[in-house]
Amino acid sequence: MHQPTPHNCKEQWPSARWRYWYTLTIMVAQYFLPLAVMSATYSSIAYVVWLKRQVPGEAVAPRDHKIAASKKKVYSAR
After folding, report:
1. Cα distance between residue 24 and residue 33, in whole Å
2. Count H helices, E strands: the chain?
3. Around Cβ 19, how many Cβ atoms within 10 Å?
4. What is the mean pLDDT of residues 17-39?
5. Three-state SS for 32?
6. Banded pLDDT at 1 (limits 50, 70, 90)
């Protein structure tokens, strides 16, 4: 039987500077960019939910009263 020999795989870069910039680019693309997008999104949601406190839609009092009155249950006295 043939015994497998251990292999080591290593990156070969033209210089240490290439490796540095590749690592930095990958870190920005995989960590900092998604973090910035998620932070902006959640900040926007938090602003609307906690600070703006405005109910979506248009409030029209006469219409709202009419709808509420139409939903009242009517009981007949028999």
Report:
1. 12
2. 3, 0
3. 13
4. 96
5. helix
6. low
* Rg (alpha carbons) of the chain, rounded to whole number: 32
The alpha helices in the chain, defined as continuous H runs, are 16-27, 33-46, 61-70
Give the C-alpha separation, 48 to 36, whole Å.
19
- The single residue listed with the structure tokens 């839609």 is 57
Cβ contact 19:13 at 8 Å: yes
Alpha carbon 27 to its chain's center: 19
Single-letter code of the amino acid located at 15 = S
Q: What are the structural domain ranges in the chain?
A: 13-53
